[in-house]
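ok so I'm stuck.
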Amino acid sequence: MSVVPVPAHTRWVPDPRGGGRGVRVSAHPESGVVVVSLWRSDECVATVRLRPGEAADLASALTASLAELADLADQAPAAHPRAG
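replied:
not stuck anymore, here's the structure
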């Protein structure tokens, strides 16, 4: 088994549930792709290779999801402090 070095342009996003879970996003300019990989501790459990247009679609979907969450938060009733 060989060890593959972590690409220079890599971003790690930990899962708040812990357990070493997280997502790693790395650019691979030599291949013209972005790789999104799912991790549990030190084990990569899944990957997807995205061409630039596909990565842009993913970024757009994430942005739309964040906007939806923000809209829902804006619509939630404000918490009122208890009297007394």
